[in-house]
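Need tokens for this chain, all 406 residues.
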Amino acid sequence: MAPKKVLLCATMDTKATQAFFLKEEIEGYGHEVKIIDVGMRRESPPGVAYTQREVAGQYFRNLQASSTRTDASNYIRIGLVQIVRRLYREGQLDAFLSVGGSGGAALACAAMHELPIGVPKIMVTPVAAGNVLPYTMGEDILMLNTVVDVQNLNFMSSYALRQAAGILDSMLRVGPPKRTGNKAIAMTSFGVTTPCVDRCVELLEAQGYEVIAFTSRGICGGKIMEKMILEDNFCAVMDITTSELTDEVGGGIYNSGPQRLRGAVKKGLPYVVVPGALEMINLGPEDTLQPHQLKRTLYHHSPGSVKMRATAEEMGALGELFVERLSAPGGDVCVCVPLRGFSDVNRPGKVFYDPAADQVFIKAIKYKMPGNVQTRFFDLHINDREFADQLVKQILRMIENKQYQL
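Here are the structure tokens for all 406 residues:
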């Protein structure tokens, strides 16, 4: 394997010894390592490729004048992100790793989010022993727990750093994902839409497509799918399970942010959208619910997951949201609506069956969606086999049409 270009990020005012140790370990595997200094207290020591002054750039004087750590961190973060973007764009970055405490981890991980899925990213830190979601945000950042603080070099911290070097070398040897973008289709799933998803996967794989499924769990689901769409990983998208939008409207825990429903439209990909599980707002355990939520119609999916039925007002807001985001210029979108229910618990006799509330969303799609978006309505339930068959026929027609246009 040819030597790879590794960027090592550290606060060199407090972690210089550890960073130089880690640099030497990685170089022992034959890779080229450059250190970028995100320290804030004093200027960079010799041996640093990208100094504090270079990172801060035009904000260097602001950094020196900063009275709070938060302000100083913001100036460093802006410069770090810009350098990381540039190095990757120019082919000068094959992997990115960092060593540090909570402050260093926050800075490094912010820059790691700028890199595509599949680029090796390792954060060596004791904060990996706790809740890492604020740092990883569901992305492919490996958090390596040092167990002890990385305040100095000792038999435990040096062991963790040697581990990091070995792990990074292994990741580089494995190489990036072998993408099949021209035959890969993104799909969103959930337990209550599984029969539909399974049937679609079966049919698409029989046609030679590779399906990449994302569980609609917010930051760890739809948000990552949207990122990978923008990174050109897919030839089409089947957004079968869109309940993250309901969490955005109704305050649920799987809110994936305002980027949902936008990526495929922006890229002009064939995009089939279904209101799968759209009637449910995802909440945590029952003891975390607010008094007003306890008065709503609830479905106890598991000990740690309670679902709350969306009201007619919330379904109307979702209709408006779909219209706004899906009708943006350049999209190739078809909204497919199963009129007999949006999930396994949204059918006659089930806890979330409320056709009047669902009709508010259905009417918004039927009467407010502009002409540049296809809309199709099926007198079927989302988990009916025939509905899945229709979805696959629709996406294949759209792919074929796209290929013909190209």
